[in-house]
Amino acid sequence: ESLEQFLEMLREDEYKTLKDQVLYWTGELHLRGKNFGTAVTTYKRLIDGYPESPMLPYAIYSLAWCEEGEGHFEEAAAGYAELVQRFPEHLLVEEAHVRRTVCLLRQKKFDETLTNCRIFLETYPNSPWKSELLYLQGELFFDQEQFQKAIPFYEEALLEKKEKPWRVRALLHQGWSHLKLGAAEKALPIFQ
Predict the structure, then answer these.
(1) pLDDT for 121-168, tens place per residue?
(2) Measuring CA to CA, which residue among 87, 90, 88, 31 is closest to residue 64?
(3) Three-state secondary structure call for residue 5
(4) Which parts of the chain fold into alpha helices (H)?
(5) Contact (Cβ atoms closer than 8 angstroms) between residue 132 and residue 166
(6) 84, 97 in Cβ contact below 8 A?
(7) What is the pLDDT of residues 41-87, one digit of tens each?
């Protein structure tokens, strides 16, 4: 029902000045309903039609999020990079860096992933996203079976004691890395 109300607002003259916001929130409703195709179309209408809108950075981020949700990692990474480049001071920039890193890793673009991680950690050394970027670097080396290089990234990422969705996987991969290197005595405490 609320989606229909937003769509009706788009047609009414009195809401012309709010059309960019209405488009953004309509896109969000589609995104939350997992209607990625319609959400993408809506965000693109906002991006193309309202280049000066204060909603533009949010639309760029949400468009990239949709692309990532659809498995279009190259397009998603490009969208996140656009947000970082065009709006370097925006509150979504740190998260966009992280999401871009995930997309690069999923594409197995290892050199770009490492570069993105390095830039992020140099630019935002105290970011709340730091541990996730460290974890992703561990995953990058683990995927390449460079276990010796993966371990320190997992160790540093796991220093953060907050529950993270990747924490169990990081522990598992850290322990597995020790096993692959023949250090069962280091793996056992991790698995216990």
Answers:
(1) 999 999 999 999 999 999 999 999 999 999 999 999 999 878 888 999
(2) 31
(3) helix
(4) 2-11, 19-32, 36-49, 56-69, 73-86, 93-106, 110-123, 130-143, 147-157, 167-180, 184-191
(5) yes
(6) yes
(7) 999 999 999 999 999 999 999 999 999 999 999 999 999 999 999 99
